[in-house]
Specification:
Shape: globular
Largest sheet: 7 strands, mixed
Oligomer: single chain
CATH topology: tt1808, chain A
Number of domains: 1
CATH architecture: Alpha-Beta Complex
Structural class: alpha+beta
Helix content: 25-40%
Length: 185
């Protein structure tokens, strides 16, 4: 066992072709990656997986991994955050991530447990759709971005979002969770 993940060997990452640890969570992430590539029309260069972002809350800092960041025209347009269990409890941290991955708001945030998905409007935080099949395709996301555009996130807002993300993902994590990295300050 590695942390709280049962390691079942290795599997080939569909995005990189490299061997990675085969865990239940990774099987779901791979399923989502295949959906993005084979059904939703994204290409490998548009998809960044397991992207580390550094967050700081007062004198504490940590690194949290974003499951997927979808980039269109060199701009981060959608984040997809995977996590087992309840989706509703993952809305707020996903919105915080969508406001921290760049100096502007990613217009769409998705939370998924690999079986279900909630699609959120990044700006308002409102639930716009449910279901893996409702994750926006490349064409749909292009239309959404054209309609909504990108809204900058102020440094003060980013500071508050980092605090929220720290509280949800670091302070509230299982002690054996090895998917986040708490940094010494």
């Amino acid at each position: 066992m590695n942390g709280h993940h049962l390691n079942m060997g290795t599997l080939v990452d569909v995005l990189t072709g490299r061997l990675i640890a085969d865990t239940h969570d990774e099987r779901y992430r791979q399923r989502i990656a295949r959906l993005l590539l084979n059904v939703k029309g994204y290409t490998v260069p548009c998809i960044a997986a397991q992207v580390p972002i550094k967050i700081k809350a007062d004198d504490k800092s940590a690194i949290v991994k974003v499951s997927f960041i979808i980039t269109l025209d060199n701009r981060k347009a959608m984040i997809i955050q995977y996590g087992p269990g309840s989706l509703i409890t993952r809305h707020r941290p996903a919105l915080a991530i969508s406001r921290l991955v760049s100096k502007y708001q990613a217009p769409v945030a998705v939370v998924t447990n690999g079986e279900q998905a909630h699609i959120l409007d990044g700006i308002s935080g409102k639930l716009t759709a449910r279901g893996l099949d409702r994750i926006p395709s490349r064409n749909e996301l292009t239309g959404t971005v054209a309609e909504i555009g990108y809204t900058s996130v102020s440094p003060k807002k980013m500071e508050m979002e980092a605090r929220i993300l720290y509280a949800f993902e670091i302070d509230d994590r299982c002690p054996c969770d090895d998917t986040v990295c708490k940094l010494r300050t």
